[in-house]
Each structure stands twice: as C-alpha cells, then as structure tokens.
Amino acid sequence: MRLPAKAKPNAIVIAEPMISQIISAQPNFPLVVANPVEPTYEIRATKNMGLGMFATRALEPGDLVLSERPVLVYPNGFRSSNPGLSTSMEEFEAAFVVAMDEMRAEDRIAYRKLAKGVDVPHAGDLVRIATANCFRLPLSLPGGPNKRWTIGDYRAVYLDISRINHSCSPNTVADFDFPSFSMVVRAAREIKPEEEISTTYVGTLDRSKAQRRQLLAFCMDACGCSVCTNPVSDASESRRMAIASYAPWTIVNHLAASIEAPNKLLVDLEQCLQNVEDEGLQSIVCYPMLLDLCGRLAGIVGNQTLADDLRGKAEMFYQMRAWYTVPKNFVEWVFEPLEGIPERVRWAASHGPQFQQMQMLNRWSPNIQDSSDVD
Ligand SMILES: C[S@@+](CC[C@H](N)C(=O)[O-])C[C@H]1O[C@@H](n2cnc3c(N)ncnc32)[C@H](O)[C@@H]1O
After folding, report:
1. What is the DSSP letter of 328?
2. Structural domains in the chain (count)
C-alpha cells in the first residue's frame, strides 16, 4: 500500500491486507509530520561507522531532534521462503525500487553500489541492505489507557533516521507515532553541537557487552560505540547490572526491602540515578519511574525542592513514551494515598512473577488487587 497522496514523503508499506486496512482506516490518517523550525542535525561521515547523524546545535533533554516518515516498511524477518507472507521477493524488489524514488540521488547510488552495482538490484541484496539500514518497528495502535495493540512486527527504512548509528549509551529516545506514521526522535540528555546522535538497536540494560555483541552481529562485526571500545569497561558492566535490578519488574523487591526506611531507600535510588547518568542510559524505560520514585520519597522525607525537580523531570520522560503507562501507574498506585504504602508494596512483592507478568502484559491497573484476574 501507499499512504494517501497528501502524505509527504510517501511511504510504501508492505503489509498483509488486513493490516493495510487497519492503517488506512485511522480517522484523518496520516497527520502532518512535525519538525523543529531550526534544523537540529546534519548527515556526514563518522570515523569508523560509515555515515552518521550529528547535532548542529545544542539540544536539551526532551527536545525534538526530528520526526520522519519511513520510505519503506516491510515485515520483520522478510525472507522469500517465509510461508507466512503473501508478499513475494519480486513484489519486495518492485516496492524497494519505487521507494528509492523518494531517496536522495546519492543514497540511491549507494544502495545500487551496495547491491553489487547492478541497476535494478536483486531482491536478496535489497533485503540485506534494507535490513542493515532499517529500524525495528513494532507497528502498534493506541488502544486506550495502558494498551497498545501490536498489529505486526515490521522494519522500516528512513532517509535520515536510517543514518543514526547504534550506541550502548544512546543519547536519544525514538518512538513511533502512529497518527502521523512517523518515527519521533528526542534528546534523552544534553547533546552538544557536533556530537553524534545515537540510538540503540538492541536492549542496552540487562545485557553484557558480549551479549550485546551477539545481538548486534546481524548488522556489524563489532560495536564501535564509546562504551564497547572503552578498554576499562568492568565498572560499566557492574553499574548496568545494578541498574537492571531497578527495572519495572524487579524494583518491587528493593521497595519491599526498604519501604519502612524512606531515607535509606532514597539514598539507594539516588545512587541508581547516578549510575544511569554515569552510564548515559537516560533513554531506558525505567528512568522516569526512578525519577518519580526518588521525587516521591524526597517529598516524604521533607525535601520539597528535590521532589519538585525530580517529579518534573519524570513527567517529561514519561511523556516521551506516553503510551507506556505501566511504570507511571505502578508508582501512583504505590504512593497514592500515602496511607498504606508498605502494605501495597508487600502485596506486590509477594505476588512475584504474577505481578511481573501483569506489568509486562500492560494489564496493570490500580484496581488490580480487587480484580479477579489476579488470584
Ligand atoms: C542503520 S545503519 C546506520 C548508518 C550507517 N552508518 C550508514 O553509513 O548508512 C546501520 C549500519 O551502520 C553501522 N553501524 C551502526 N552503528 C554502529 C556501531 N555502533 N558500531 C559499528 N558500526 C555501526 C553498521 O555498518 C550498521 O550495519
């Protein structure tokens, strides 16, 4: 399918007919793609990773770097032999060649060269190229509070976003905005002019450097980011493991252990926030939850200035992934009302795996204790 003519740039979406229908049935679809008035980046050569995207001005956390509609969207794991797909290799090749019309001349030339210099490249090569230049796109629609219906797992090729290199300390958060059918990239921390803009291609938190290397092998021999090329990375590994124990599905154990001692819990959580900053991991999904928890505890122990500062920051980071409301709802449920916090925390900890599963399935609701889903 192609998006309606008013959509610029146009995107070619290779999808199953039912999914194409769902996409085009959205009211007023697609909305205009919003971008900063003053450009924030340029594309140029890096030292060791081919082309990359670089900031042309200073950016603050939360600032929009760019929003971009893909030129091509295709099912993840596309293979000619994939029996589940109705799209053939020939159709993929034709779609890719049309998508190239939307690309800059130099990109088109690069793609053709990559595809062994032939004018109309072989689809097999195109899949390889597209896969190395794509972004994973779990295509999903907003479906009410705490819900996002995943309608398929796709990959997408962009003119500019596909130039963003991977870093294990990415300085942006990227999230797909369905109404405008565009990927929205925002700064996750301060970015200086000339600094390379980075994203993550894999989970950066709960994996060691060796595991990340394995996961990245589909598109690079070795990760050239500053974390992986740092010869002294042991401290980084242990900081990441420590942070991972505060992820949404494990944090409840820390809360249960120290909820009766808010000062101690605050110190532990502040250390965790420090680790996040030292590792440059403000892009992780649990960062706003950590800020929020610290802010609430600071309020409880009487430090209102710190509480306001941290909760303001938390809100901004929650907004960057506004559809993922599980961590925010969890913190609200624990802390509101102030009476009964220890009981609620102990209840959540005692429900262990069941509790985790509810969170991960996005089925968390403040009334979950009373719900028949629980027991
Ligand atoms: C989505 S593209 C990024 C743009 C690419 N550098 C280019 O010139 O078009 C992904 C490719 O960039 C390179 N790349 C991205 N991140 C890298 C990293 N951290 N280390 C080494 N190579 C990387 C790899 O060749 C990878 O297949």
Report:
1. H
2. 2
Cα(50) to centroid of ligand 1, in Å? 6
Q: Are 280 and 360 in the same domain?
A: yes
How far, in Å, CA of 317 to CA of 346, rounded? Answer: 27
**What is the per-residue DSSP string for 102-168?**
TS-HHHHHHHHHHTTT-SS--HHHHHHHHHHTEEEEEEEEE-STT-EEEEEEEEEE-SSGGGPEE-S
Of the two residues 43 and 180, the one the predictor is more confident about is 43
pLDDT score of 319 more than 80: yes
Question: Is residue 156 a part of any domain in this protein?
Answer: yes
Residues 142 and 289 in one domain: no
Amino acid (1-letter code) at residue 173 = V
CA–centroid distance, residue 8 to ligand 1 (Å): 26
Q: Tell me the residue range of the domain where 263 lies.
A: 234-370
Cβ atoms 155, 130 nearer than 8 A: yes
Q: Could you identify the atom of ligand 1 that is nearest to the CA of residue 162?
A: 1
pTM for the complete prediction? 0.83
pLDDT at 151 over 60: no
